[in-house]
Fold these 3 entries.
Entry 1:
Amino acid sequence: MREHKEYILGIDIGGTNFRIGLVSRNREIRDFQIKSITELQKGDFITNLLENIKYYTDVYKNEIEGIGIGFPSIVSKDKKYVYSTPNIKNLDNINITDTLEKKLDIPVYINKDVNFLILKDIKENNIGKDKIAIGLYIGTGFGNAIYINGQIIEGKHGVAGELGHIPVLNSKKECACGNIGCIEAHASGKVLKKIVEENFSGLNIDNIFTNYGNTEIIKNFIDSLAVPIATEINILDPDYIIIAGGVPIMKDFPIEELKKAIYRKVRKPYPAEDMNIIISKHDQKSGILGAAYYIRNYVEQNL
Ligand SMILES: [Zn+2]
């Protein structure tokens, strides 16, 4: 039986900022910081990351149980490497886990950020291990995590749940992943930003749904968001459909319109007539809490 220590150090790497902080056994967060990602990009990524971790390990030396790091990337099946992070430089193809563990002598767990987030949502909504839950995280991109029978579905290479990259028939739009015609190139925060720039010049994006929610172009955007969501619902017939991310929590986001659009596209009578959609609120600390759930409620229980 392992001894359990007081804290998990959670690190949530994003395209613009990264967030770092300790999560106690009572889920209280200590010494939370938000920092610019450029701090990790000048020179060697691991050296810079270690520098930030040291701030915590110096003070809380023997009280840190493990370190959980979420990346907006594809993470290898063995959870040591990060593959393909379009928005962050000098990160790909380094053995992050082993390098950090050797230097710190603390267990290190890395994963796709959405795999941490879904565990937070599962825990907070008391979703049982016998249920199927899907997480749709609509931020800059379109993130997805799938939870079945108490397991996050990872696939042969650890890259399952790349729902944002399902192909759209006849689409010629370029996606950040390098392919042409991914749904993410039609349905994501990036796309919304472009719509605002091209059609509502000068408008603060925060007001797009309040001022222009009824325009054809915004209604089409909402309809596009429903395409990948309905696709996954049709495949899995999930017990819970968790929708979160920066876009759905924008002011006056038309949640009911999105639900109607999903309903239109989902198979009748079921799953359409009995969908359990949860709109989950996330903030800057969610990734860190998710990292703590991952280590305490997922990894350690299956060890
Ligand atoms: Zn793509």
Note: The pocket of zinc ion is lined by residues 165, 175, 177, 179, 182, 184 (CB under 6 Å).
Entry 2:
Amino acid sequence: MLEQMYDLSGKVAVVTGGSRGIGKAIALGLAEAGADILLNYSRSDKEADKVKKEIEKLGRKCVTVRANVGNFQQAQNIGKAAMNHFGKVDILVNNAGINRDRMLKRMTYEQWEEVIHTNLSSVFNCTKAVIDPLSKEGGVIVSVSSVIGEMGNIGQANYASTKAGIIGFTKTMARELAGSNVRVNAIAPGFVETDMLGTVPADIRETIKKDIPLGRFGTPEEIALATVYLCSPAASWITGVTLRINGGNYI
Ligand SMILES: NC(=O)c1ccc[n+]([C@@H]2O[C@H](COP(=O)([O-])OP(=O)(O)OC[C@H]3O[C@@H](n4cnc5c(N)ncnc54)[C@H](O)[C@@H]3O)[C@@H](O)[C@H]2O)c1
């Protein structure tokens, strides 16, 4: 019975920003649980092709779509491609995100706007892109927020605003889509070993680590496990939550 509860065989999952880091781990995790994957990415064809091959090795189908999710039209193409190739969408994981950290005094409007579009407008854009098929069949949306969305952080006014916005969007969508049997949740990772964390200077990384009760950064796989859980029948009565995965960083 437990195995069945985590089985995603026959499901189709759209994962944004899936060519590396947390998105890649989520795409592979969902595939391992049985889902076919529409893998969105923005830059590297080579990275996306590598992930596609890894998914296919697991015996699942994978279609890659290059699109900037911050752009409304390009995001609609992701939904269209999923329908063309698979004929349905069961799961959407809004993972794509960037940071452009600066103290507010030095943050340009362009840095504000780029992060808002990529991290928050993208969640609106991609949800719109799949909302019709999802509402028809039922399904799941998981969006990647962050511990920073709840705590705030010096130099991250743009990033924190988007991650807090995702939580409000998630709660609203959970209410709007419950009647269509669509569950909508967010995850709020703490600091995870990816290229994004690599942009933080080494001394600041050490200071951050001291604030994590479990004493280490998370791995992309630990974030993927929680996401697969929220996407699976095991979480069938969970909607509107933000699941914190942070080694105790925010208790
Ligand atoms: N790494 C962390 O410590 C951490 C903590 C909390 C939340 N997060 C969130 O997790 C998500 C993934 O982060 P990561 O650490 O794996 O970062 P990453 O930089 O390794 O990967 C980000 C992914 O998003 C894609 N992307 C960026 N802009 C895009 C766009 N406009 N359109 C489509 N795809 C785009 C990138 O190509 C890449 O595949 C982000 O939303 C991030 O904010 C990360």
Note: DSSP finds ten helices and seven strands in the chain.
Entry 3:
Amino acid sequence: MNYDDFLELVKKRRSFRRFKSDPVPKEILEKVLEAARHSPSAGNSQPWEFVVVQDVATKKSITQSITSGYKKIRKADPTMYWAVAVQPHLSTAPVLIIVCGDRRLQETYPVHLPGEVLLRQSLAISIYTLQLAAASFGLATAWATMQTELREVQIRKLLGIPDVYTVDHIVPLGYPDEEKEKSDKALRPVRERASFRRELAEIVHYEHYDMGKFRSDEKIKEFIWSKTVTRIPRIK
Ligand SMILES: Cc1cc2nc3c(=O)[nH]c(=O)nc-3n(C[C@H](O)[C@H](O)[C@H](O)COP(=O)(O)O)c2cc1C
């Protein structure tokens, strides 16, 4: 594979949150998971395990559990527009992949950083590999984060996942419904902001940190409120 093909794949992977009902063939699903299996991990600990959920009722329960949590968050903070707007997509995806991380494997690491950092970094890489592999088949994915311990507990119970695992990421997988994605008003602000990327010249420093590129606190605030997809003021 040359660089152009690789970059094309990287750009092809975008978050999609509206899915067609067409099932994902098992052989393709397994190829996507196979790619994730080859991801790098801290100390080669491979802490990931994937629970694949296709049962409609189970997907609904998972979605309800997550959205009810987000509704509470949004009630307390109306700027969390994004959270509620995008989570209901989970139940429409033909496949939900619940990414679990075995906390016991933290003992592998030569250093212990707070917050299970190396474990979570390893899981994140496996998710990204999975997303790239899915994109290579024209499949859509998104990344859904469970925000509270409560959600994690509920989902662990629902799926019978032992306590030793972290359960904080879910990847919906399916064929993208591009029409719905484009026409869904709830997704518009997210879609518009998500395609934005900072310029290379802004983010790369050669030899030492270039203070000319350092962003003030005000600039960071402005960036968060105008460019990121999480904080979007309530839209009537
Ligand atoms: C660590 C992480 C957590 C994320 N959590 C969520 C989430 O809970 N819900 C969601 O819809 N998207 C989530 N996303 C997707 C981002 O919003 C998305 O990647 C970003 O807006 C850029 O858009 P793109 O994926 O289309 O390039 C998450 C992405 C990452 C890397």
Note: The mean pLDDT is 90.
